[in-house]
Amino acid sequence: MPYFTDFEQGLPVLSAKLGHQFSDSSLPRRALTHRSYDPKNSYERLEFLGDALLGVIIARSLFLRYPHHDEGKLTRMRATLVRQETLVQIAEKLELSRHLILGVGERKGGGRHRASILADALEALLGAKYLDDGFAAARDWVFALYETLDLAALTPARAQDAKTRLQEFTQSKKWGL
Questions:
Q1: 109 to each of 63, 69, 104, 117, 176, how far by Cα in Å?
Q2: Which of 75, 80, 125, 130 has the most CB atoms at less than 10 Å from its CB?
Q3: Per-residue pLDDT reduced to its tens digit, 100-139
């Protein structure tokens, strides 16, 4: 699949994939601009916002959907759903690599397929969607994105973060925290 060298040319394709026509085209442009291309207008601020939104949206959904799960189990579930690997799967389904705006060095270095860039750009797009269309639309978009995933495949038998695994190990040896 070819990459778009002109953002405006690829915007209709991106909008169709996202199911959203941005009223402010500078938002998706910024959401897909890596700092190697433009350090002052990169996706980093939108990524910050999108990351926080994603955490809230997923946490609320899990809280309501699983009323009998304790905080630890909900935390592990949320971590699985918002981790980089999951976000990259979504970004790949949206073909975000085709739309990334990267500096020459990042392009030559394989930045279009770098997991951290794809995950960050997806979070930045969520931040842009929120600013353009509000919280309810951003929430609905997240739900639609996650519907396309096989959630059972994302959840390993012991979907725990490293800190939790370490604490459980040290406690099993009676070493304390």
A1: 41, 43, 8, 12, 45
A2: 125
A3: 999 999 989 998 999 999 999 999 999 999 999 999 999 9
Q: Provide the token pair at 61.
A: 């959904």
Q: Active site residue: 51, 106, 120, 132, which one? A: 51
Q: Could you confirm whether 51 is annotated as catalytic?
A: yes
Among the listed residues 16, 43, 17, 29, the one whose alpha carbon sits nearest the alpha carbon of residue 95: 17
Among 47, 106, 123, 132, the active-site one is: 123
Rounded Cα distance, 27 and 43, in Å: 9
Kindly compute the dihedral angle of the four CA atoms of residues 141, 143, 148, 152, in this order, to the nearest 10 degrees. 160
Annotation marks residue 85 as catalytic = no
